[in-house]
Amino acid sequence: MFESAELGNKIDKETYDREVPNLREDLLNAQYDLSQQGRFPVIIVVGGVDGAGKSETVNLLNEWMDPRHIQTHAFPDPSDEERERPYMWRFWRALPPRGKIGILFGAWHSAPIVERVLGRSKSAKLDQSIEEIIRFEKMLTGEGALILKFWFHLSKEQQKKRLKALEKDPKTRWRITETDWERFKSYDRFRKVSEYFIRQTSSTHAPWIVVEGVDHRYRSLTVGRLLLNAMRERLAKKPAARLPEKKHPVQPRVDGKDVLTSLVLTKSVSKEKYNREMETWQGRLNLLTRHPKFKERSVVFVFEGQDAAGKGGAIRRVMQALDARVYQGIPIAAPTEEERAQPYLWRFWRNLPRSGRFTIFDRSWYGRVLVERVEGFCSENDWMRAYSEINDFESQLVLNGTVLVKFWLQISKEEQLKRFREREKTSFKHFKITAEDWRNRQKWKQYHQAVCDMIDRTSTEIAPWTLVGANNKYDARIKVLRTIVGSIESAV
Amino acid sequence: MFESAELGNKIDKETYDREVPNLREDLLNAQYDLSQQGRFPVIIVVGGVDGAGKSETVNLLNEWMDPRHIQTHAFPDPSDEERERPYMWRFWRALPPRGKIGILFGAWHSAPIVERVLGRSKSAKLDQSIEEIIRFEKMLTGEGALILKFWFHLSKEQQKKRLKALEKDPKTRWRITETDWERFKSYDRFRKVSEYFIRQTSSTHAPWIVVEGVDHRYRSLTVGRLLLNAMRERLAKKPAARLPEKKHPVQPRVDGKDVLTSLVLTKSVSKEKYNREMETWQGRLNLLTRHPKFKERSVVFVFEGQDAAGKGGAIRRVMQALDARVYQGIPIAAPTEEERAQPYLWRFWRNLPRSGRFTIFDRSWYGRVLVERVEGFCSENDWMRAYSEINDFESQLVLNGTVLVKFWLQISKEEQLKRFREREKTSFKHFKITAEDWRNRQKWKQYHQAVCDMIDRTSTEIAPWTLVGANNKYDARIKVLRTIVGSIESAV
To answer: What are the backbone dihedrals phi and psi of residue B424, each rounded to the nearest 5 degrees, phi first?
Structure first.
């Protein structure tokens, strides 16, 4: 596949000098429109062979366009804050918001290729990374991003020549080190691995564009024009009119049995037993956080459930067992402006804990397939793809060694009514009940269906849901704590 | 001053059990009002003697209130990302937004005290830290924060007893290590240093509250009530009506001479000379970024100037000399929602570069004393205090080893008119000129005065302004690059 990037493509100086001023003006205008519309981000991924003009091109794009509105990120050795999170965390941090251009120099593709070339990873691992990257990029485009992936290529002979030329020129001599020649030795292997990688990760939504890197004019014009065309095409496209939703008639199982209706909601527990059990489990949880192995782990809890199902109360009982220094509680309400300018998972990524720490989400990314689905805040297509995006996200967490525990707290419709009424009566719980709660209650059936679908599609082996019948608060809290202790115990 | 915290204050169980439920309800309600009003953040600083109940109190506050809306931060060893920034960076990161409570466990006071106790810093250094902390806290309260600083105290005898008790109890044994006994040996010294520190940093806007730590009921009720009262008092206070501005009649110097009018605005430079000079200075700048010592430095550039003064053009010429991987351009427009919920300097702190990197601010924190002053976006009191706050900020940068270069680009009123008209004519510069530019132009005199004041008050020895006559773009750009090269050269 690199053959067509070894043809010796060239542009003469005259043509180049004639074309560039117009191209620049067009790019600037496109950049301005991008910013004005603020509808989508442009993500430019830069990869390829050493000496093929990667950094020159990145600098050139910054020179041609308004560099103040371009965010360029390179990814040298990860910082310790990055190392303690899943591999993709540092890239999530670097994503440009809607309306901006982000140039990612050596992005998520670099490590998998290099590791494989150096023989530090097996081909199965490479295939797994490929799979993850495809899905990640698909998610990004699903969220509206325009992704352009440029691969700068040189033949072996060309690379040798280029490295020598750089080495000879006093102005660029500093760029060529032992490491470069070391790497040159693995040219063939690098070519083979990256060819495979490029082929596999060239999906319809984010194909690689292989650019011959020898002639700087050819290279620059190619990249500039492709970028311009892609931006123009995308800017001209009207925001897709919301498709009429396919009617999903709520279809209760014919026997009326589903994961929720099968759940025992009420199990009474005496106050004595509750106190005894709480002491036991809170004590064990506290002890676990001081386990030496715990320092290398991080923990994420997800609490979902109907309004008044007792999420807050359960969360407080968990927090009571923890030193306040080691956890952050993240209540999920409407996203902030900065969060709205990013893919919906971004606000959860930004709150992932470091090693030895907990993040407790009170509501979570599952809002996408619950409230956003039921209320029509996103399209059917959006929430349908969210299931697999969420599974991907969670599998990255778990692979990173994070202990992930997800709870669904379920109460009956009668119990909810009782609790709503209580809240309205008690002055200091008054603020816990709003008109919205009553409105949500009217959609009980739709939520029921959404929850069943969610559990069916996202209760995976590595990240199962724990369903908690929560009509009895004592019983629910005991189950939550017992589950948490079990999960952490098996991890350390 | 610790005497009154060694009296053996106690609360009996009965009183405590009677008081707590009401206190909790009141705290929850105050927390709710805080969140609803969203007017100010509550910053709770926790310090004191080991074993005096610091972490117990932090946990208790989380238990009594809604922990999902409290952000608790502890500050163990800084991460590498933190070490590469000024000391205060990690605390800026942890500041709660308006409407939230942030508990900072061992905040900015810890290191200065500990360093002094261990004899790693001189008393002059401690005094300097004290000075900085007072000014920092004053800035926070100026920006609206409610700060409560609790110091938990134990006498030497009490501490010994407490450590032994903790050591004896199997549930708390893990908390006491060799280090604690090591530290206990320096009790007297710790007491002396912290007494001095507390006295010096107990300002009217953020006094320390010394709490006797022996009796947990006394300690808890004291903290809870003080917190409640402070929140209630503050919540009840109506937002201060904007005071009528003192009229600052624009007073040009009697001889009409000031730093701006004395500046030579026009110096013509031939295109040849410009090209030659640019090559020289850009080349030298590029070379400097590869200097081995540069890896330990970071660089911040500030570009200010009238509309159309050529900031963008100058910035681009600087960026051209740099590898796009090492800089971030930060154009300063209206703050985002998350930024608006923080002190005005927060958005600049969050963008400070790591070592070996540049941040280029296109407009900056000086907006406070320019546009915000002239347009009345903040009160006179706000922009008046900003001068010294900005000086503090910049001195922290410089002390951290950051190279800071600040440019004011000045053009004449006629030159601005010419450039505005040109922009209106040129299609691809069209978007650079708006109605606002014309409006700003009408306030030429007010801006002139604001700029003169700014330069007078913030051109310090460690962070001087470079004034650039910019009627001739070539001349201005050369001066900018030459200045930058000079500053970095003297730093590496």
So the answer is: -65, -30
